[in-house]
Amino acid sequence: MARLEGKVAIITGAAQGMGAAHAKLFIEEGAKVVLTDLNEEKGQQTAAELGDNAIFVKQNVTSEEDWKSVVDKAVEAFGKVDVLVNNAGITMAKSILDMTLSDYRKIVEINQVSVFLGIKAVAPAMIEGGKGSIVNISSMNGLVGGAVGYTDTKFAVRGITKAAALELSRKGIRVNSVHPGVIATPMVVQEDTKAAVEEFSKHIPIGRVAEPSEVSNLVLYLASDESSYSTGSEFVIDGGLTAQ
Question: Family per UniProt (predicted)?
Answer without folding.
Answer: Belongs to the short-chain dehydrogenases/reductases (SDR) family.
